[in-house]
Amino acid sequence: MRPLLPEMLPAEIKRTLRSPWLHPLNDLQAVDELLERVNPMWALGRIRARVIEVRSETPDTKTFVLKPNARWAGHVAGQHCLIEMETEGVRQRRAFSLSSADSRHCSFTVRRQPGDGVTARMHARIRVGSVLTLSSARGGFVLPAQRPERLLMLGIGSGVTPLMAMLEQLHAEGYSGDIVFVHGSRTAGDAIFAARLSALAAHWPALKCLSHFSATHGHATFESIAARVPDYAQRHTLMCGPGGFMQCLIEGYAERGLSAQLQYERFGLPPRRATAPGEALQVRCGPSERLFEAGPQQSLLEAAEAGGLSPKHGCRIGICRSCQCRKKSGSVENLLSGARSDAPDELIQLCISAARSDLELDL
Q: Which residues form the 2Fe-2S ferredoxin-type domain (predicted)?
C-alpha cells in the first residue's frame, strides 16, 4: 500500500487512516486507478501523457511525441524514461531515451525490434490521442556541465536517440566548439534522424556528420572509428549503440588509458563473459518450495522462466527493478558489474543476476 498521508500527522492517526477498512481511499495507486476510469490523464501519483504526434522516421522506426500531465518534472537531454505497456493483464516496462531536448514534451523514438513484443505493440497500438504511463526522467547520460571544446558523438542504430537530444541542446545554447558525429546504420534508408542531422549540419559550423553503413562498410569498430576521426583521443566522447559495438569501444579506450573521456549509455546487458562449463545450480523458491536449475550463462530470470515460473519482470536489463526479489542464501554475480555477493537476506534483480552457488530465493 503506497502512502497518501501527510508525514506531519501523529502516528496513531496515521495508523488509523491506513486501516484496510478505508481501502482504496488510503492507497495512492488504487486512487489513481479510480481516477483513470474517469479521465485517463488524471493521476495523483503517476505521470500520464497523451500522444499528440506520431512520426515515421524509417520503415521500422517511429517517433511518439507526448504531452505529459502536471506530474512531469521535465528532463535533461540524454536521459531516459520507462514506459508501461499492458497486455492481457501483464504490465511491462521498457526504457527509452528521450529523443528531443524539449522538456515540456516527451519524445520517444522507437525501432520495432524483431521478437520484442513491446516495441511491436507500441508501433501497432499507439496513436494520436493514446494515453501512456511513464516514469520520471532518469539517468546520468547527459552532457558534461562544463562543455568540452571538442566532442565526438557515436550513435549507432537507435543509439542515436539520446545524442540527438544532446545535439539539440548544444545547438540551442549556441555551442561553437567542434563536434564530430558518427551516425551508424545498416543502410542509408535505415538511418534515424538523417534529415534532421543534415539540416543541422548545413547551417551549424560546429557540427560535422560522418555516416557509416554496415551493409557496405562492415560493422563499426574501434579501428574504423579511429581511422575516420584521427584526433579521437583529444575529444570527449559520448556513445550509445549496440552492446557489441560499445564493448569494442570501451575496451579500445581502456587499452589506451582513455576511459575517463568516454561516456556511454547501455540499454541492455553487456556481452556475457565466457565461463568454464559447469553443472547447473539449483535454486529453491522459499514460499512455494518450487525448484529450478540455473546455468552459469543464464540470468536468474531466464532460468526461472525456463523452469516454468513466471516471475514479475519489466525491462529485463536491470533498469526498472520490477524483478527485484530477496535472496535468502547463496552466491550471485551481477551480470552488469561482475560483482559477486554472498551476503544472506539481500535484494537482487533476477534479470541481471546469475547463480554462482545453489540459491534460496523468496520467490
A: 279-363
